Amino acid sequence: MIKNEEIILLENRYEIYLKKEIGRGQYGVIYECQDLLNEYPDKKICAKKITCFLQDEKSKREFELMSKLKIVAKGNPNIVNVIDVLLHDEHVILILERCEGDLSDLIRKRRRQQQRFTPAEALEIIKQITNGYKLLLEQKIIHRDLKPQNILYVNNTYKIADFGLARIADQFGIYTKLGTPRYSAPQIFWDYQYSYSADIYSLGIIFYQLIFDSFPFDAKDLQRLKHELFLLKYKPIKVSRDLPEFKLDDSIPNLIEQMLLYHEKDRINWTKLFQHKLIINNQFETKLINQVETQSINPFQELSIQETKIEKPSKEQNINQQTTDFQNQIIPNTQPIISKEISKFVEGVDQSYLFQIFVVFILLELQKRKL
Ligand SMILES: Nc1ncnc2c1ncn2[C@@H]1O[C@H](COP(=O)(O)OP(=O)(O)O)[C@@H](O)[C@H]1O
Ligand SMILES: [Mg+2]
Predict the structure, then answer these.
(1) In the predicted model, is pLDDT for residue 2 greater than 90?
(2) What is the pTM of this model?
(3) Which long-range contacts (CB under 8 A, 24 or more apart) does 360-363 make?
(4) Inter-residue contact 82 to 69 (CB < 8 Å)
(5) Minimum mean pLDDT range among 51-60, 132-141, 270-279, 295-304
(6) Which residue among 21, 43, 102, 159 has the greatest number of ligand 1 atoms within 8 angstroms of its CB, and so is best to mutate?
(7) Is domain 101-286 in CATH 3.40.50.720, yes or no?
(8) Domain ranges of the chain
(9) Which ranges carry the Protein kinase domain (predicted)?
(10) What CA–CA distance (Å, rounded) separates 330 from 328?
């Protein structure tokens, strides 16, 4: 039996089960929760209790942003659904759609199974996050902490979550150093001014990590990481093309390289990313499918396909071709008239006489025009 002190009842509606923890981050704890009104019967929900007090800058920010996202993000499947934003005992409590887990769980699971995400799978995840970001950009929100732990999934749909460090971009864009170092753009370490481009960099690191199950550079500690990031200025990241898929199509390594460039002015921006052929058409996947098909053809089969391509024309095709060539050589631009007359005349005549009949017509035509 659940004791009363283990449950928080909010708005006479939400029961939050404090003994049933789903997840925990640096600033919040996620608990199981039930909506007594059952307003969304097809959706499971959970509650995030922000650990710092309401007076805290971080709490205020999450309260404001989540209240905004509750209204504007409803139609976007790639942003975690905010059902309610409430206050309890000087703490912010968010009622959220409950997901199956976060992307870091999936990365760990693959590692245990000694598998990696295929480039096509990684691209699909990146595509979905990019779609979620469209709304953030529209609302002028910089996330500032994109990383696998903050990407949730449910039924193969990936969702941007945890807006604890996010903020509305302002005119000056001068922000404090925040985020998770491994996913943070160089500007977060050295420049006081950074923008949405910092989120592109984080997404580039996630993209790389999904495919290679590692980071683009070795960084055992913060010192080393900063050193590597500094070097990026002079030595941009070169993504390996060693995977068989990349030998055929290196558009993914090219894109990751563009996402991880040191200077924001050189790095691909969100508008360009939204329009990138990989994001719009999934062209990489199509190419992969073609590749699989080509690979499955045995060399002899391929040879026979080529042979059929240069097959000798049939007798009939030959006659028709000769007719056209001859006609175009002798009297240019006469094809429509002559063909009409021929077609009327030869109706029911054996095709093999067509060429001879045509020669007679040409001669008659030449005589008519006195050529
Ligand atoms: N809606 C949710 N559904 C399922 N799990 C969640 C949900 N929200 C968060 N989690 C889990 O809890 C962890 C911490 O949540 P998060 O919002 O990132 O808190 P923090 O602000 O402390 O980082 C996430 O990494 C994830 O594993
Ligand atoms: Mg988090």
Answers:
(1) no
(2) 0.77
(3) 362/326, 362/327, 362/330, 362/331, 362/338
(4) yes
(5) 295-304
(6) 102
(7) no
(8) 7-97, 101-286, 297-370
(9) 16-279
(10) 6
